[in-house]
Specification:
CATH architecture of the largest domain: Orthogonal Bundle
Distance between the termini: 51 Å
Strand content: under 5%
Shape: elongated
Order of helices and strands: HHHHHHHHHHHHH
Low-confidence stretches: 1-17, 230-236
Mean pLDDT: 83
Structural class: mainly alpha
Radius of gyration: 21 Å
Number of strands: 0
CATH topology of the largest domain: Tetracycline Repressor, domain 2
CATH class of the largest domain: Mainly Alpha
Number of domains: 2
């Protein structure tokens, strides 16, 4: 596996580090915990590895020994952050009974509650998605595709098994559409709350947010939702 921010032209910014021993693994975990808060507070570019090490009372070189570079450290922090998020099918059983779009509605309406419960992982997720350079972002995309931390593939198969999704669209395409659109829509719901100075209007009524969610789900359903049999017969 290549190092973070590596490509076929430029050399990797760091090389993979050998698997740590148990005692070293515990130290590694403490570094990730401290870095999680530091990145969330200061952002990716303003964060300083030296400050993280100083806060832990360890040498800066010790951090590089474990993670190779600032990019390598952030990548491990990002992975821990997104792995802490619930998967689509972690929705309550009664919600899953309502089907694919009911599950989507559940998570979209709970977006703000999840952030209020612990905003730090979400902030790190935003930084990984929008606040890092292209090379590091490529490694993040590779991780999201190979590990599927949100369980999107299983969720799409759930919708197909319930015959709620179109079968004429490739599964990977539906997964990509969900990843692109749901993530961006959740970000739009939360940006004003996380960065209130970004918009002139402060917050909005719950009824208006629910209307936006319903509109988003309606657009998504028209794009990937299965066509009812009666409608399909009329269009032949």
């Amino acid at each position: 596996m290549p190092g973070i921010a590596s490509n076929r032209i430029a050399p990797p910014l760091y090389q993979p580090v050998a698997r740590a021993r148990p005692r070293s693994e515990a130290k590694r975990g403490r570094i990730i915990d401290a870095a999680m808060h530091h990145f969330a507070e200061h952002g990716y570019h303003a964060a300083r590895v030296g400050d993280i090490a100083s806060g832990l009372g360890i040498a800066k070189g010790s951090v590089f020994q474990h993670f190779g570079s600032k990019d390598g450290l952030f990548f491990e922090v990002y992975k821990r952050a997104v792995r802490s998020f619930p998967k689509y099918l972690d929705a309550p059983p009664q919600t899953r009974t309502g089907g694919f779009f009911a599950v989507l509605h559940y998570w979209l309406t709970r977006t703000e509650h999840l952030v209020r419960e612990d905003w730090i992982p979400y902030r790190v997720g935003l930084l990984g998605n929008y606040g890092t350079d292209l090379n590091l972002r490529r490694e993040i995309n590779r991780f999201l595709i190979t590990e599927d931390p949100y369980g999107t593939v299983a969720f799409v198969r759930f919708g197909l098994e319930r015959r709620e999704l179109r079968k004429d669209i490739d599964v990977e395409m539906i997964v990509s559409i969900l990843d692109w659109t749901v993530e961006r829509f959740q970000d739009a719901l939360l940006t004003a709350e996380l960065d209130p100075g970004l918009f002139r209007r402060q917050g909005e009524l719950a009824e208006k947010k629910e209307a936006r969610i319903q509109q988003f789900l309606s657009v998504l359903q028209r794009a990937i939702g299965a066509v009812p049999a009666a409608v399909s017969r009329r269009t032949r």
